[in-house]
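Why show two proteins at once? Because comparison is the fastest way to build intuition. When a single record is shown, students tend to memorize it. When two are placed side by side, the eye starts asking what differs. So, the first record is below.
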Amino acid sequence: MRPLHAWLSFLACLAVLGGAMAFTTHVLLQIDRQRADAARAGAEDDAVRAALWQMDAEVAPLVADEAARPYFEYFPFYPAEAAYTRMFRELERGEVLVPSQLLTLENDLILLHFQIHADDSFTSPQAPVGNKRDLAESRYLRPEQIDARARRLDELRAVLKPDELRRLLPRRKGNESRLPNELVFADDAWAAHHVQNRAEYEKRAQATKRIAGKRKDESYNTQQQQNEIAAPAENPIVVREHPMTAMWLGQRLFLARLVTIDGGDFIQGCELDWPRVQAALAGAARDILPDPAFAPTLGADSAAEHRLASLPVSLKPGTVRLATEAEASPVRLALWVAWGAVLMAALAVGLVLRSTVSLSERRADFVSAVTHELRTPLTTLRMYTELLATGRVKDDTSRSQYLDTMHAEAVRLSHLVENVLSYARLERGRSRDRAETISVHTLVDRVAATLRERARQTRMELAVTISPDAADSTVRVDPAAVERILFNLVDNACKYAAAAADHRVELTVARDNGSMVIRVRDFGPGIDAETAVRLFKPFRKSAQAAANSAPGVGLGLSLCRGLARAMGGDLRHVPGIAPGACFELVLPAA
């Protein structure tokens, strides 16, 4: 298969696999995103519910306290011993009164308590009038406090519509009390409204005074008092407290309830400070909702999703701070692993394919180069043997030259074949271990003669230098392999630097960090950077390159590096040497 076809097939397979993986990834991510969104929505909903619970816990005690407050606390003062039975009796001089809790109540969330009487008049237990104000100022409140509350009560008169409130407030069964009908009401307007017959009112007043006079009489025994109390008049007064309801009137929040006394509807309640209520609600759940918003719940909004149970207020959560961050999705982790595996596999296959194609191309070039290299000596040998065999060469001198040429070509051919066979053995890992311990001086002397002869054939001069610290050192190497490596390096120097002005080939031996370094340098044209990158790759010469360069198939340096590394050393090109080229053979010291 041609390289282009191989690469096109690989890219086509990679495109199909990538498309399948992309589609699968898209579907799985979409499913995982929906799951994560649902999980987060559930976690946020749970967090919002927890926040609502905390907010309700913040204001529910306030609402519960107001709902449980007895009706008589909406009067500034009341007699303690007859809170439920003598509430509306005309007070006598010297009688002990109890101030209402509302008179001195200080609550940042409540602006004012108020009471709307059956005749639509407004009062407040925190803004008493008449002699009750005098009593409040004497012991409980400052005049400026009462004046401020009175002004706020005047504002409520302009805002609250008693008839509308009575229509809106629910009438469900609540607390119920029955008062004796002989009681007298201190509020003449209220009494006149609920007691249709003025004479009946006067009759009740006289009866109350008479009973009070008898109670002061020592002869009026306790049993008689109990009998009178136990046998009230025929029509007792009924006090019925209806449930407390939170409601919005415009942009103002109220708690209000109906109190029915003898058929007349009182309205009792308080106005809440909505900005401070908002701040209290937000502060109660700030660890969950850092920026909540609130809105009144009116009419059709009564079924809002996030609504407080204690107040008609809906919550807009805003940012929800979850207790724990979402865990890493196993689907995403699996996809990362899958994509990483696919990319690594694609990269590995691509590298293998690239190496295979490159190796195939180099081998094809090698076959072409070997063919070219073999053709020349074989042609020379055939031609000269034919000339000698047919007796066409009569001159002994010419015959001797022909024989020398044939010998040189045979050596060249043998050298080429031996290089190929040695490289094949290295590739298959079958190189034989012939390492021996030998002194550097002996090793160099063994190969120096052969190297000088090779240099002499191209009119080059080999200069050998051994540093004093390396002369007596020993190395453990295969001498034949070292000879082959150095011969290849000197042979390359002779082939590529033969035309240089300086015909020297330097061979120096030095010690370097426990290793022996043999450096071979020529003074020829050197090696350019592009060629240096491919210098140690096998089969790097094509037939055209072999025809236009010095003899060889581009296998020598690759073979030499393999032999050096098989001995535990290395062979490397030394860049930056000018003029010429320089190679270092590193050998392990014994």
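Second record. Ask yourself what differs from the first in the token line.
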Amino acid sequence: MNRKKKLKLKKFKLHPATTIILLILFTFVLSGILSLFEAQVTYSQINENTGTLERILISVENLFNYDGFKYFISNATRNFASFTSLSMLLVSLLGVGIAEASGLLDTVIRKKLVKLDGWVLTFLVVFLGTISSLINDVGYAIIIPLGALIFLYKGRSPILGIIAAFCGVAFGNGASIFVGSLDISLIPHTQLAARLIDSGYHVALSSNLIIMIFSSIIMSIIGTIIIEKIIVHKVGTYKITAELRKTQEIKIISKELAEDYEQSKISKEKREDRGLRFALITSIVVILLFIYMLIPNLPGSGLLLDMNANTYVDQLFGENSYFQDGFTFMVALLFLLAGLAYGIGAKTIKSDNDVMRGYKKYMNDIGEIIVLIFLASQLIALFNMTNIGVVITGWGANLISELNFSGIPLILLVMIVVAISNLFQTSPEAKWIIISPVAVPLLMQSNISPEFAQFIFRAADSMTKGMTIFLPSFIIFIGYLNMYNPNKKEPIGIFKAIRYVTPYFAIISVAWILLILFWYLTNLPIGPGVFPIL
């Protein structure tokens, strides 16, 4: 009997670096095609000096020509050096690496966090990621590596910890527990747009505070359920390798060896406890020093404040705030000093050579992430040069103005337009500059307050934050997935990474929409003395 042989096509999986290179080439070609068809947009923008509307014409810039390739070659180094995700990552790893190499993170997680239920740990990772939006994009650089280590030491998949951290930061970007940098950047444009209808309208910094705090909690709870009920099955069970398992087995041959082992264990625990005390004291001192640097008008205080700003919030989170610019370094310094203190107390660090050896071991796999960041910096810079994202956002703003919607249909339309625009233009402020002059007045005409309009934007911006390669920090997510990928022969590509977070995106988007509609229909306060309905 002749058996028919089935031809099996081998699955061809691209490394994320190859995918980014192809996307760079596609960006060149796409810009040429769209430019050939004269793709452009004319949208309204508010002049900050006069408060009046101005018409802005933006066309797609063709990079598929001599000048485009010349720009690419001459600016490659500059694009890489100015890519903030790179600097944030390297600075944060300076601290996290020392804390991990000294054994501090291992001891804290093993003695304190590992006792917590898996769901509680997942909630903590997601919640910390959500509220990290208080300080720009610092969460991507700090929470993602910590999420991986927490899950790893818990005996769970570090990939699941990476996904939990990334989803918390990206899809919870609109939530927080206090006024932060996002409020500082959005409120001026919200106020300018509101004054197109009411020339004396004022938007307070705390106008979204109540709904932000509530949403940070509820979105973290929903996110935890998504991670534990859905994504955990997509990632699979984490298994310790046979070699690692052998190192964890202790064979006791005789009574004397057993006694020696017990004595060694007791001695080690004493050193660890001593190291933890050293680390705790050091952390308290460092944190108190940081707090003192944030207090104005005391001897030698206010070092991290922009004293030229008028309000304290602006001094703290304004454009020229030293606190905001230096926060990543401050956190890294905290981890570094606490790690050194622990190492000295626990005697895991006996010389500066021990520090560097441990740090080098932790940083062994970081090279691949740096390569990915280099390629991503080129892709994002080139895509921004094409103006495609601005044109798409402008088209969306014009669609909002042309469709005569009001009430709930208008709210949903604004959210959809913002969510789609966010896939191509990830900067919240850049989008809000284009959308606010249209969305805020129309929503005000439907008796919806500008403050609530701003939160509608924040919620919609969060819905698709983690679904686009044009998010600068998305590449950190990809890099860490591959760093902890157990199957090095099959790298986790960009599209697989997106598939990991797709259930989170789908469910959390519905949650954001329902939250907005609930607050609108109940007219609960969104901030002190501020309501959705005027």
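One difference worth noting in the second protein: The chain has a mean pLDDT of 86.
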